[in-house]
């Protein structure tokens, strides 16, 4: 292990934690497929923030490029993006993650029920380990953080397209119009999500009769 990295001696344990959360989500998917023949997760991506990305984030936040900054002050060194087909599945996965042994929820933001001004929708969670697993060499009072973003397919598609346009180096002259159109598209997709959820609920109700 290279002790000169910003994560110090912690990278192997961080990888284990990422794999543990991923395995728990896979367990939920298998269980729900057995119960209802329906997978609540369309796809799931995970990552440990790269050395360069973490150092760049420390600089943006005017933090020293240290292990403590990376694992205590900043809380997204381990990250998950979970994409679900339906809104109800987002909250199903949320409840599963909140009940995982060895973890606690330390922060949540529901941007689905309370969308951002630009139309962004997603459910954000910060988990933290509650057992003996704590960052080494960081003067950490608590455990490791795991950031989770939960979205529907529509929300994820919108966020991906918005990201491509937002990060162009030169802002267009008609930026205000573009922002308004992005918000309109987000609202239309949110309405579609609600309609698809209602259809799914109807189908499941009929199948249960």
Number of domains: 1
- Ranges where pLDDT stays below 50 over 5 or more residues in a row are none
Biggest sheet, open or closed, and with what strands and sense?
5 strands, mixed
Strand content: 15-25%
Radius of gyration (CA) equals: 19 Å
Query: Can you tell me the CATH class?
Result: Alpha Beta
CATH architecture type: 2-Layer Sandwich
Count of distinct strands: 5
Distance between the termini: 58 Å
Helix share, percent:
40-55%
**Overall pLDDT score:** 91
Number of contiguous helices: 6
Topology:
Layout: H1 11-36, E1 41-48, H2 51-60, H3 67-73, E2 78-84, H4 87-98, E3 103-110, E4 123-129, E5 145-152, H5 153-166, H6 175-208
Parallel strand pairs: 2-5
Antiparallel strand pairs: 1-2, 3-4, 4-5
List keywords for this structure.
Beta Polymerase, domain 2; alpha+beta
Short description, anyone?
By secondary structure, the chain is α+β, with helices and mostly antiparallel strands.
Protein model, in words:
This protein is α+β, with helices and mostly antiparallel strands and 209 residues long. It has a single domain, classed as Beta Polymerase, domain 2. It is 49% helix and 18% strand. The protein has a 5-stranded mixed beta sheet.
């Amino acid at each position: 292990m290279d002790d000169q990295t910003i994560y110090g001696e912690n990278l192997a344990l961080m990888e284990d934690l990422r794999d543990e959360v991923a395995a728990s989500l896979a367990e939920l998917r298998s269980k729900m497929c057995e119960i209802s023949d329906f997978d609540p997760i369309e796809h799931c991506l995970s990552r440990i923030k790269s050395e360069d990305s973490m150092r760049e984030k420390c600089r943006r936040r005017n933090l020293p490029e240290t292990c403590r900054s990376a694992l205590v002050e900043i809380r997204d060194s381990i990250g998950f993006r979970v994409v679900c087909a339906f809104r109800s599945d987002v909250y199903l996965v949320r409840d599963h993650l909140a009940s995982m042994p060895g973890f606690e929820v330390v922060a949540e933001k529901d941007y689905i029920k309370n969308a951002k001004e630009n139309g962004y929708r997603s459910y954000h969670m910060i988990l933290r380990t509650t057992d003996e697993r704590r960052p080494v060499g960081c003067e950490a009072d608590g455990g490791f953080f795991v950031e989770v973003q939960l979205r529907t397919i529509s929300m994820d598609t919108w966020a991906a397209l918005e990201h491509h346009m937002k990060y162009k180096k030169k802002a267009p002259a008609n930026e205000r119009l573009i922002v308004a159109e992005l918000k309109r598209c987000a609202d239309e997709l949110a309405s579609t999500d609600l309609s698809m959820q209602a259809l799914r609920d109807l189908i499941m109700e009929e199948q249960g009769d």
